[in-house]
């Protein structure tokens, strides 16, 4: 069943997990044949910003060699055929310009979210 | 008529994102969907009569059914007989009923 | 008697951290009493919900012994829910996300819990009457 995942939670345990676990989950499900679309809202719109850079952390002599690369992961999801959308007003409220984003993400007006939700058989909220 | 159940577990005293459920519920109802907002956990705190719960009252007048989990109310000492206008106490079974009936369900 | 349904619930929270865990188990309890088939996909911290090494403790602040305190222990609640589902003609299929188990060292779960992956979540959802995601914050 065509499923819309709305992702709001952002930067929660992303350093520890070296991924956003929900974006990762969707990559894994897509790999298993899932029919998914993603709507980013709230803080999660920041995940589309290309310039994110979490590299360089160290804890004692342990150095993180695989920091999260969330924008790339979303671009990879899009390349696999997952439609990636974001709430346009949330982007604006976060002061993010569209030219900062990865390619391929589509804006959705806040007032159009209900219509988007109505187009899917299943809606999951993360 | 498609049926939606939006479960609101957050409260406006702690979160400024309760508008998401409010707005989505209102939009869905305006599109002639049957919409219920089910308050659970701290989400029931604005259900107390006299609490700052303007958003919830607006929902009821927009044609959205607003329910509050009986156990969450009891846990917080909120009298089921003294809820803000438009809000009714209901058992958690309401969520399972909606799941069983195939409603689209979002937990916020 | 209610028609038998199959419901999938995705959980993410570790025990003792949030009210979401309690509400999730309340929902599983309702489904179990109805004899539904319940799929639980435990992701991230939720893989610790059925962790076998959980242990009850006394409560010195209240002057209660281990027995008197009768502390809520998630693995015991889950085992009881599994029994309830069976007694009512249903079943709980609890799947712990394997990588989440590994990174948390939560390998030892109670009987009836199996290791799985995101593919299991998608397959369970596809085979269910409905799915509820209770994400963490």
Would you tell me the overall average pLDDT of chain C?
A: 97
- How many structural domains in the coordinates of chain C? 1
Secondary-structure element pattern of chain A, one letter each: EHHEEEHEHEHE
- How is the main sheet of chain A built? 5 strands, parallel
Low-pLDDT stretches of chain C are: none
What percent of residues of chain C adopt helix (DSSP H or I)?
Answer: 25-40%
- Content-based structural category of chain A: alpha/beta
Largest sheet geometry of chain C: 5 strands, parallel
The strand order across the widest sheet of chain A is: 6-5-2-1-7
Most extensive chain-chain interface: A-C, 19 and 17 residues
Mean pLDDT of chain A: 97
Helical residue percent band of chain A: 25-40%
Summarize the helices and strands and which ones pair or pack.
The complex is a heterotrimer of chains A (about 130), B (about 110) and C (about 140).
Chain A: E1 3-7, H1 14-17, H2 21-31, E2 36-40, E3 58-59, E4 62-63, H3 70-79, E5 83-87, H4 88-93, E6 106-108, H5 113-118, E7 122-125
Parallel strand pairs in A: 1-2, 1-7, 2-5, 5-6
Antiparallel strand pairs in A: 3-4
Helix pairs in contact in A: 2-3
Chain B: E1 3-8, H1 19-30, E2 34-39, H2 54-61, E3 65-69, H3 70-75, E4 87-90, H4 93-100, E5 104-107
Parallel strand pairs in B: 1-2, 1-5, 2-3, 3-4
Chain C: E1 6-11, H1 19-33, E2 37-42, H2 66-69, H3 74-87, E3 91-97, H4 98-104, E4 113-116, H5 118-126, E5 130-134
Parallel strand pairs in C: 1-2, 1-5, 2-3, 3-4
Question: What key attributes describe this structure?
Answer:
heterotrimer, A: 126 residues, alpha/beta, Hypothetical Protein Ychn, Chain: A, two-stranded antiparallel ribbon, 5 helices, 21% strand, C: 137 residues, five-stranded parallel sheet, 36% helix, 20% strand
Structure in words:
- The complex is a heterotrimer of chains A (126), B (108) and C (137).
- Helix content of chain A is 29%, strand content 21%.
- Chain A has 5 helices and 7 strands; from the N terminus they run βααβββαβαβαβ.
- Chain A has helices spanning 14-17, 21-31, 70-79, 88-93, 113-118; strands at residues 3-7, 36-40, 58-59, 62-63, 83-87, 106-108, 122-125.
- In chain A, the strands form 2 sheets. Chain A has a 5-stranded parallel β-sheet.
- Chain A is globular.
- The two termini of chain A are 18 Å apart.
- Chain B has 108 residues and is an alpha/beta fold.
- Chain B has 4 helices and 5 strands.
- Chain B has helices at residues 19-30, 54-61, 70-75, 93-100, and strands at residues 3-8, 34-39, 65-69, 87-90, 104-107.
- A 5-stranded parallel β-sheet of chain B has the order 4-3-2-1-5, sandwiched between helices.
- The longest helix of chain B has 12 residues, at 19-30.
- The mean pLDDT of chain B is 95.
- Chain C has one domain: 3-Layer(aba) Sandwich (Hypothetical Protein Ychn, Chain: A).
- By secondary structure, chain C is of the alpha/beta class.
- Chain C has helices at 19-33, 66-69, 74-87, 98-104, 118-126, and strands at 6-11, 37-42, 91-97, 113-116, 130-134.
- Chain C has 5 helices and 5 strands, in the order βαβααβαβαβ.
- In chain C, α1 (19-33) packs parallel to α3.
- In chain C, β1, α1 and β2 (37-42) form a beta-alpha-beta unit.
- Chains in contact: A-B, A-C, B-C.
- The A-C interface holds A 1, 3, 9, 12-13, 17, 21-22, 25, 28-29, 31-34, 122, 124-126 and C 10, 43-44, 103, 117-119, 121-123, 125-126, 131, 133, 135-137.
């Amino acid at each position: 069943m065509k499923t819309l995942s709305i992702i709001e939670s952002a930067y929660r345990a992303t350093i520890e997990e070296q991924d956003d676990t929900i974006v990762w989950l969707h990559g894994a499900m897509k790999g298993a044949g899932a029919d998914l679309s993603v709507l980013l809202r709230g803080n999660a719109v920041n995940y589309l910003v290309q310039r994110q850079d979490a590299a360089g952390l160290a804890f004692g002599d342990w150095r993180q060699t695989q920091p999260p690369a969330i924008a790339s992961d979303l671009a990879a999801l899009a390349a696999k055929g997952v439609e990636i959308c974001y709430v346009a007003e949330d982007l604006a409220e976060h002061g993010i310009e569209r030219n900062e984003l990865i390619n391929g993400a589509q804006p959705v007006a806040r007032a159009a979210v209900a219509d988007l939700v109505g187009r899917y058989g299943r809606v999951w909220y993360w | 008529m498609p049926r939606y159940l939006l479960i609101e577990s957050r409260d406006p005293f702690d979160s400024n994102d309760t508008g998401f459920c409010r707005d989505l519920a209102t939009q869905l109802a305006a599109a002639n969907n049957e919409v219920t907002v089910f308050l659970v956990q701290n989400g029931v705190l604005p259900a107390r009569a006299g609490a700052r719960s303007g958003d919830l009252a607006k929902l009821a007048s927009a044609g959205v059914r607003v329910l509050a989990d009986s156990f969450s109310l009891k846990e917080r000492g909120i009298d089921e007989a003294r809820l803000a206008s438009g809000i009714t106490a209901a058992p958690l079974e309401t969520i399972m009923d909606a799941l069983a009936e195939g409603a689209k369900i979002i937990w916020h | 008697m209610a028609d038998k349904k199959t419901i999938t619930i995705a959980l993410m929270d570790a025990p003792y951290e949030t009210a979401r865990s309690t509400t999730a188990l309340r929902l599983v309890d309702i489904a179990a009493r109805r004899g539904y088939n319940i799929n639980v996909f435990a992701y991230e911290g939720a893989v610790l919900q059925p962790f076998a090494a959980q242990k009850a403790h006394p409560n010195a602040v209240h002057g209660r012994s281990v027995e008197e305190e009768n502390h809520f222990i998630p693995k015991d609640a889950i085992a009881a829910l599994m029994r309830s589902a069976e007694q009512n003609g249903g079943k709980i299929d609890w799947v712990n996300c394997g990588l989440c188990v590994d990174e948390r060292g939560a390998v030892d779960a109670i009987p009836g819990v199996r290791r799985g992956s995101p593919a299991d979540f998608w397959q369970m959802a596809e085979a269910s009457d409905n799915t509820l995601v209770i994400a963490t914050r």
